[in-house]
Amino acid sequence: MPIRPRPAAAHTLHWVLSPIFAFAIYLAVLNLGSTYFRLENYQREAIWSLVHLNTQLQSTQHDIQLYGLGELAVKSLRTRYELLWSKFDITLNNIEQDNMLGEISGLHQAIDASFDEFKAMESRIYSGETIAPEVLDKWIASLSHSHEIINRFLLHEVADADGSYSKSSWHTLLKSLYLVAAASLLFFVHIGYLLLTLMRERSDNLFQLSHDSLTGLANRNHAMSMLDEFCREHMFFTLAIIDLNEFKQVNDVHGHPAGDQILMHLSNEFRETLSHYGLVGRLGGDEFIWLVNTTDRELVARYFQKLLERLSQPYLLNEHQLYLRLSAGATTCHGDNPNPKSLMAQADAAMYSAKKARSPDISWYKPEQSLEKSLSSIIGIF
Amino acid sequence: MICGKNCAIAILTLMILTGLGFYISQNYLLMPDGKPMILITNKAGDMSGMEQRSPKLDQPDMLLEMRGAAGSGCPAEEVLSEQQLGSLPQQTFKTRHTWSKDAETFSGPLLSDVLSLFCPGREFRELHLRALDGYAIDLNFPTVERYRPIVALTLNGERMRVRNKGHLWIMAPLDDYKVPARSLDELLIWQLYQITVNVTE
């Protein structure tokens, strides 16, 4: 009988693994949440820095015009210049830190180029000399051009849901989603595996509960409950009790391990023959029960004959040839005698009569046998 | 139901992991609590408030205009010079922040010291801060005071120009506090030129 060993260490591991996998889901969800907020934060910052760069570009153009008209002091223009400088600086730093912004092709170069042009004006602004109107016009044109380019990036790449910024932000979020999915999958596969193991173990335990541990045949409890059920359901069946003759001597001469070996051999022979036609169980010691779903005595005898044929070959035990001899008694139930105890007594009586007659064949219960047996037992008492 | 060794191990693991979960939530998911401490009242680029600027700021070395709202118990106006700010106890720390790849060193007086210099003996509640580019915030001072914000005068040991977000920049030792990244950015107002004290106690 296949009894799987209990994998104790693996068991402990499983008990630890389930909370760990549940925890992995928790971590993955945390990661998803924080990634979402981080991405939102980054996009807001990206839009913020570009919008303010643009606003400052426009304000600077406006101030240059006022300066050209003589309505703005050079000091105010310098302040404006410094402010725009800081916006360029912030935007470039933002591009450097935000990969998604950095990956927008052309943005970094465009802002770099605009910044370089803008820096070139520094010497004129701080020279203290009046700046020529044509230089101012050229400067305004350059700033306006930068404004247009940045606006285009802002509208189509950063703010637009179809733009490359949103796409790469979505890809980052998707990676966190995959993590959640993987952790959940791991958890549920593991729970499924645990359930499967438990179910297997349960069926093993049920098998062990109803079967004899030495021979693997049905045990007494199981066989008797089957008999009870047959009787309760008023079924037509044959109940046979089979006894192995001279088993005690084998035990005495060859020892208990040899006895066990013989019982196992006999059980295997049962399985090869009798089990095909009904349930074979071990009542205890060298006594077996056989429940057959027919009341046809000839048929039962024929089935039994198959077993006898196999047992006609000697069993080799420690270089001794042993011939196993059985005594079998049986009784039939036609659905009219729903008392399992009396059926057992009948089969028992028939078995004893077979033993007495030293008959290898199955002996059938005759009503007078029980009388005889009870009489002899009464005599035995006195 | 009898709880075996495995069951005990499972419960123990669960308890450890739950504790770990609490720890992670506490330390990495901490959100600033209480009522909103920062309210952006004016977006950068909007220059409408610039006319209220004190002409004294145009004088050399004058950096910070302090104003007291009516009923706040503070003087109506005072402009602090670089020298005045420099004479206060200076805080120096190195921290990472949103606008630089590497950690940078900031130095300057505590914001609370600057407020006390302008308006001694008061507990400050509501502030209004303005920047040169038009950005302005309303600040619930007690909720941010625990982050020990400073009015930074120097960045990496050098005075800041307007182009480097100067001359004054509110900064806090962010690395010392376990706050989510970028959650205090709105407080860290750069190109600061004016603080108005609205409510004190």
Task: Present the secondary structure layout.
The complex is a heterodimer of chains A (382) and B (201).
Chain A: H1 8-68, H2 74-97, H3 99-102, H4 107-119, H5 122-126, H6 133-159, H7 164-210, H8 220-232, E1 236-244, H9 247-254, H10 256-272, E2 278-284, E3 287-292, H11 297-311, E4 315-317, E5 320-322, E6 326-334, H12 340-357, E7 362-364, H13 367-381
Helix pairs in contact in A: 1-2, 1-6, 1-7, 2-4, 4-6, 9-10, 12-13
Chain B: H1 5-28, E1 38-42, E2 62-68, E3 77-81, H2 82-87, E4 90-95, E5 104-109, H3 111-118, E6 124-131, E7 136-140, H4 141-145, E8 150-152, E9 154-155, E10 158-159, E11 169-171, E12 192-200
Parallel strand pairs in B: 2-12
Antiparallel strand pairs in B: 1-7, 2-3, 4-5, 5-9, 6-7, 6-12, 8-11, 9-10
Plain-language structure description:
The complex is a heterodimer of chains A (382) and B (201). With 382 residues, chain A is an alpha+beta fold. In chain A, 70% of the residues lie in helices and 10% in strands. Chain A is built from 13 helices and 7 strands. Chain A has helices spanning 8-68, 74-97, 99-102, 107-119, 122-126, 133-159, 164-210, 220-232, 247-254, 256-272, 297-311, 340-357, 367-381, and strands at residues 236-244, 278-284, 287-292, 315-317, 320-322, 326-334, 362-364. In chain A, strand 2 (278-284) and strand 3 (287-292) form a beta hairpin. Chain B is an alpha+beta fold and 201 residues long. Chain B has helices spanning 5-28, 82-87, 111-118, 141-145; strands at residues 38-42, 62-68, 77-81, 90-95, 104-109, 124-131, 136-140, 150-152, 154-155, 158-159, 169-171, 192-200.
